[in-house]
Design brief:
The chain has 231 residues and is an alpha/beta fold. The chain has helices at 9-14, 46-65, 77-90, 107-125, 134-151, 173-181, 210-229; strands at residues 19-22, 34-38, 41-44, 70-73, 94-95, 163-166, 185-190, 201-204. The strands form two sheets. A five-stranded parallel β-sheet has the order 5-4-6-7-8, with helices on both faces. The chain is elongated.
Length: 231
Amino acid sequence: MENEIKLNVEEMTQAGMSFGHKISNLHPKMKPYVSGIKNSVNIIDLEKTAKDFEKALKFISRLVFENKTILFVGTKIQVRNLVKATAEECGFPYVTERWLGGTITNFETISKRVGYFKDLEKKKEIGELEKYTKKERLMFGKEMESLRVKFEGIKDMTKLPDAVFIFDLKKDETCAREAKRKGIEIVGIVDTNINPEMANYPIPANDDAISSVKYILDKVKECIMEAKQSK
């Protein structure tokens, strides 16, 4: 089962996907993906990006077709709302606040905390917290908010994900390391300051510009929705 998602290099250019980091920040292993330099900034070869992005989309499509789970990880402030919205639309778990060390490598412990959070939510819903004093209810409220921030995106994730999609491999390197330790495949945007070998399916592109990340997310969403329809 293969879904063809059309990638247009011109559209990718307009989305600002080709702008990397300053030449002084170039990761040596990103050299093959750089087509030139403009104003001391590395320019990413989007023809190569398109080929790698297509491979990533085919992988994502296959996962969806096989009812596998992809965990979206995007904790950078400017993209977190986009990542969260797309993950929710696609029905996948997400982490858009700080990555909690052990989310993958210590999943059992994290799951217990998530269970506690869900239990509190349920108690609030059925009015079981009303028997407590105002001060105690206030404390429960603060605790629930803290837990919501940490666990809202993964509260329905009952097992380890089959893949993680990381939107900034530098910021969320801990997540990548944990995924590697557990043998979980990584799809990731790799800017020019990142080692592309950190991802099994690297997408060489600007990971700072909202327009660049939005283009990638839109294509990923399109791919996921098509795969769901064709099941």
